[in-house]
Amino acid sequence: MAGLSAAARAHELGATPVVYEKGTRPGGSMLLSSCVIWRFREWDDFRAECPTGDEALQHLVWERLDEGIEWLESLGAPVVEHETGNPRTVGKRFDPRGLTDTLVRTAGDVRLGGTAAEPTILATGGFQGNAELVAEHIRPAGSLRLRANPWSSGDGLRHALAGGAELSAGLEEFYGRNMPDADFSEGDFVPLAQLYGRFARVYNERGEEFSSGEVSWSENDLVQATAKQPDARAWYVLDDDALAQSVRERKVADIVALAPTRVDPGELPFATPSGARVAVRVSPGITHTIGGLRIDEQARVVGADGLFAAGADVGGISTGGYASGLAAALVFGRISAESALDRQ
Ligand SMILES: Cc1cc2nc3c(=O)[nH]c(=O)nc-3n(C[C@H](O)[C@H](O)[C@H](O)COP(=O)(O)OP(=O)(O)OC[C@H]3O[C@@H](n4cnc5c(N)ncnc54)[C@H](O)[C@@H]3O)c2cc1C
What we know:
The protein is α+β, with helices and mostly antiparallel strands. The chain is built from 10 helices and 15 strands. The strands form 5 sheets. Strands 7, 8, 9, 10, 13 and 14 form a 6-stranded mixed beta sheet that branches. It has a 3-stranded antiparallel beta sheet with strand order 2-4-3. The radius of gyration is 20 Å and the shape is globular. The two termini are 21 Å apart. It binds flavin-adenine dinucleotide. Flavin-adenine dinucleotide is lined by residues 1-3, 20-23, 28-30, 32-37, 115, 123-125, 147-149, 151-152, 155, 189-190, 287-288, 311-312, 324-327, 329.
C-alpha cells in the first residue's frame, strides 16, 4: 500500500518513479486485506487507544487521512462501503483488487520479482515474515503463523539500520488475529479469524485464565497476550450466551463452526465453568509489526540521511494499541513522495 501510494503520488507530481516489488504480484498485504481504511473519529480517542505512539505522526494520520481517501477515489479506486460500521471510527472500505489496480496504473512503472539496491523510499511492509526477527524483537512463547503476504521480512529495516537508522518504540508489539491452532491459507485470513475472544473465557494450556479483564474492541491486546502464553496458545471457552453474540454481522456460533480446533469442553485437561458448550484452541497469526523505523513528520528516516520510509516499515504510530495500518501507509506513502521530491 505505502510503496504504491508513494509512487502514484510521485507520478502525479511529475516524477518518473519505479516501484520494485519483491513478490510475484503487486499489492502486498493490502490485496489480502479487508481494505477498510480508517481513523478514529475523535483525536482524543486515537491518543487513548494508542497512548505510547508518536503524537506528531499520529496527528498527521488523523488529519490527512480524509484527503488521502478522497485522492484514492479521485484516481478511480472503487469504494465498497462508505462507513466502517464502527461508531468510533470513520473511513471507507475499498475493493482491494480495484484499489491495487488503480494504484499500479497511476504509479506507472511497477517491476515484479526484484528489489532496489539503492531505494529512496522504503516500503517493504514490516518484518513479520522473518521468524528470527520476530523471535528477537517480539519474543513470543511459541512460533507465530504468518497472516500476511509472504515477502515482508524486514528488508527495509535491515537496509535502514545499515545506514544508521534509529528504531521506534514498540518493537515488541504486533497486530494480528487469534486463528484456529491449525494450518490455514491466504483465503482463510479473514473468515477463520476468531474475533470473539471478548465473549469467551480464555485459558492457557495450563488451565490458567490469563485474560479476565476487559478485552479491547480490536482484540489486539488479547492476541498479544496469547503470544506470551506457553506455546503461544489459548483456549476460548464459550457458553450459549457467547455463541449467540454477533461480530461484524456474523454469529459467533457460525465462526466457531468453521474452526477445525473446536472440541467439547469435557475433553480439556482442566475444569471449565458450568454451562460451557464448546472450546476452541487458538494461536496468533501475525499480520504486521507495530515497531520499526523511526521517521519524522516528513517521513525521513531518523539517523539515515536521504532515506524515507512509509507503511509497516515505520514504527511508533499505533504503539500501545491498534490503528489502521492502511491509513498510516496511505498518509505516509503520500508524504514520503512529496518529501523526496521536496514538494511539501
Ligand atoms: C487479512 C488481512 C486483513 C487486513 N485488514 C485490514 C483492514 O481492513 N484495514 C487496515 O487498515 N489494515 C488491514 N490489514 C493490514 C494492512 O494490509 C497493512 O497494514 C498494510 O498493507 C501495510 O502496508 P505496507 O505498504 O506497509 O505493506 P504491504 O501492503 O504488505 O506492501 C509491502 C510490499 O513490499 C514488498 N516487499 C517486501 N520486501 C521487499 C523488498 N526487499 N523489495 C521490494 N519489495 C518488497 C512486499 O512484497 C509487499 O508487496 C489487513 C491485513 C491482512 C493480511
